[in-house]
Amino acid sequence: MKKNQKQSSKLRNKHQQHKKEYEDLFKSKEHIQYDSNIQKIDKTPQEQQIDQNRIQQCISRSWHKRLDCIVNLSEIKVGKFSQEEIDYIMKVVNEYLLQNNLNDQDLQEYIELKSFGLSKMWLTIANQIPNRSVDSIYKLIRRKYDSKNRQGYWNQNEEADLIKYVQQYGRKWREISKHFNRTPDNIRKKQENFQYQQNKYRVQHNKYFLFQIMIQYFRLNLVISSLKLNFVQILER
User: Fold this and answer.
1) Is the pLDDT score of 17 beyond 60?
2) Does residue 110 contact residue 119 with C-beta atoms inside 8 Å?
3) How many degrees, rounded to 5, is the angle at CA 224 between CA 218 and CA 226?
4) Which residues, 6+ apart, have CB-to-CB distance to 75 below 8 Å?
5) Is residue 67, in this structure, part of any structural domain at all?
6) Angle at 191 between CA 173 and CA 64, to 5 degrees
7) pTM to 2 decimals?
8) Which domain holds residue 125?
9) Domain-embedded: residue 17
């Protein structure tokens, strides 16, 4: 217990040293970038309002998404990480831990104690992978190291609970994660996969239903044609 408290105290001290520095960095870069863009082009009041809304959204986002607001998103790669990318990111993480005399437990505390998000560690690691967003790198590392991220098979009880909590909370994944030993990303992906499977089943069911209607339609036509033929034969007698 004392060891964990000492580690937490060490992380808090490091966090306090870097927090103000990076908050100022965010504010200055956001202000410079968006103000310069507005001044370069003669925009209508509506367009200026849109830009101001973008700035406000940037400021209100989590630290890793706020950092992505000040980079050129056209150069950022999106989609699933390749195994080569994952191996490289894990290598960068391990090198950082060694250089700064940290261990896996320290990293888990950085992840689980959300107030440490502005730490220099995340920014330094993300800087080594410039073609991926800070947000995606942070979430990848969190999935790998977060002790609360239970991986693997979802049993029927968990799936039933997920349906219940989604109906209760909607898409508030962080709130839902409080009822599971899984991360918000894990829960979000499960729900998206669950919806995909439901939609897929619905489409297949509709196709099958339509196919059955077509079969019945052709059968009915055959019966009608047969009745017409019999009726004609009766009239000819």
Assistant:
1) no
2) yes
3) 105
4) 130, 131
5) yes
6) 40
7) 0.45
8) 2-145
9) yes
